């Protein structure tokens, strides 16, 4: 299954990443039926805001001779995965600005309502197979459990020896009109992603208390990933 996914990704992404890099970072965005039009826009714009934040931009600009390379895709059901940003080495401010502009200009297209989290993991892993980088990291954003396609726990087991790290950004419910129990409410979903999805070196789960907090949570996650790179592992 993974070999087929690699072939598919090579076709849509234009082949393997050629430039040496210190980290390959693939970001998978949940656009399943539980994500409405407003939340879709908050997710795409939130990632753009996080990439444009000072600490993240500074981290990305370090060592342009061995850059971080980014890819962004959105996913819902097992057959509904679209590559928004193919592998792009972030070698300059202009390149990063181009990625941000692409995210801000992306419009939603119809998707199946299902949540194929395991399939999204396979797609991201296939993308990372193309990247010859010191570190390879897959980020999955999601606001619910998988209900279609391969089970995430089975995919996690299948990819355990792939050498990649899978992190997650778990999105809870937006603030209610009265009261606020979001912190405890997000706990079970975070536990699910921790047990079923993430794995690899220093893997972690970040949380957003609703899509209103997505940009802040994404910035925290990117800072943690980019600022803790072990540069000494580069040859």
UniProtKB/TrEMBL annotation:
Signal peptide extent: 1-19
Superkingdom of origin organism: Bacteria
UniProt-listed Gene3D superfamilies: von Willebrand factor, type A domain
UniProt keyword Signal present: yes
Keyword Metal-binding: no
Segments passing through the bilayer: none
Keyword line: Signal
Protein name, as recorded: VWFA domain-containing protein
Origin organism lineage: Bacteria, Pseudomonadati, Pseudomonadota, Alphaproteobacteria, Rhodobacterales
